């Protein structure tokens, strides 16, 4: 009987130990399970902190529009406080107050800051701007960051808004290509560059010529194979698309220039939209421009 009693005690002890082990295991499982619920199951990837918009280039790879760290003062004087504003702005440029004042009086609405700014410089200017008001109603200048455009190309390249999205011209039509998409594990993300068929030297010459001969007209110079080398005047979407040669590294299947042209020298052709009375003079002036071209087709 004693032996059976001992066996019974051993079984009881074994049951107790097994039960204790099971409870301990359950506790560990519960703790692990509880921790897994509160721990982050997914971490967002780090996206590029710097987004650089693609550039617009001419046929030779020269920049027509490029995102640059150009800060400047946006002028909104409404004929008030030009001298005070000029004195304030001059402190951040290489010009004196008289020079800046003259530019403002001529209608310039954006005065570029000469030196690149770091965050401390920018914060300092912002603090000064808070104090710089001519009255409660007149805040004559504000600081902005803009892209710099070559003036004779702006009707073609277009413009961007403060959030660096296209609002006109090539910038608007190809905004999705030019805009940078944030990438993971990359400090900088770049949009695609767009290369045009334009030749910037010829474009400048056509611009200067048309200002003198037919300021409010429209004109284009086309290469022997029909590519638009220069364009003057406001262009619609179809015209602008005909000037695109490549997007990123891929050739762009541009539509043909949508207007009839007249023959010119060097196997080029000219599109003119000017008063009939001035057309011969304008054509002669443009032919003189073409004759000076150094490009060989």
Query: What is the distance, rounded to the nearest whole angstrom, between the alpha carbons of the first and last residues?
Result: 117 Å
**What's the Cα radius of gyration?**
34 Å
Largest sheet: 7 strands, mixed
- The fraction of residues in strands falls at 15-25%
| Strand segment count | 13
Element-by-element helix/strand order = HEEEHHEHEHHHEEHEEHEEEEH
Write the layout of secondary structure elements.
Blueprint: H1 2-38, E1 50-52, E2 56-57, E3 63-75, H2 82-90, H3 97-105, E4 110-112, H4 119-131, E5 141-149, H5 154-157, H6 169-173, H7 175-178, E6 188-190, E7 194-196, H8 200-213, E8 218-222, E9 228-232, H9 237-241, E10 244-247, E11 250-251, E12 262-263, E13 269-273, H10 279-291
Parallel strand pairs: 1-6, 2-7
Antiparallel strand pairs: 2-3, 3-4, 3-5, 7-10, 8-9, 8-13, 10-11, 12-13
Helix pairs in contact: 2-3, 8-10
């Amino acid at each position: 009987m004693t032996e059976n009693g001992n066996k019974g005690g051993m079984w009881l002890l074994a049951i107790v130990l097994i039960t204790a082990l099971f409870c301990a295991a359950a506790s560990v499982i519960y703790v692990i399970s509880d921790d897994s619920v509160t721990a982050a199951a997914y971490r967002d990837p780090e996206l590029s902190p710097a987004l650089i918009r693609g550039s617009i280039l001419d046929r030779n790879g020269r920049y027509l529009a490029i995102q640059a760290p150009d800060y400047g003062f946006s002028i909104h004087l409404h004929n008030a406080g030009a001298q005070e504003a000029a004195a304030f702005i001059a402190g951040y440029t290489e010009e004196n107050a008289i020079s800046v004042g003259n530019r403002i009086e001529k209608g310039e609405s954006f005065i570029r800051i000469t030196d690149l700014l770091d965050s401390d410089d920018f914060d300092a200017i912002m603090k000064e701007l808070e104090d710089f008001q001519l009255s409660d109603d007149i805040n004559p200048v504000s600081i902005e960051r803009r892209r710099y455009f070559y003036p004779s190309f702006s009707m073609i390249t277009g413009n961007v808004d403060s959030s660096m999205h296209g609002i006109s011209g090539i910038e608007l039509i190809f905004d999705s290509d030019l805009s940078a998409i944030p990438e993971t594990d990359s400090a900088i993300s770049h949009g695609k560059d767009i290369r045009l068929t334009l030749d910037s030297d010829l474009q400048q010459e056509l611009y200067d010529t048309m200002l003198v001969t037919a300021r409010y007209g429209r004109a284009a110079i086309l290469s022997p194979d029909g590519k638009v080398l220069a364009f003057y005047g406001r262009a619609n979407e179809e015209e602008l698309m005909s000037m695109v040669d490549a997007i990123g590294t891929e050739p762009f299947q541009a539509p043909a220039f949508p207007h009839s042209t007249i023959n010119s020298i060097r196997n080029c052709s000219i599109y003119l939209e000017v008063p009939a009375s001035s057309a011969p003079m304008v054509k002669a002036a443009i032919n003189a421009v073409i004759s000076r071209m150094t490009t060989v087709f």
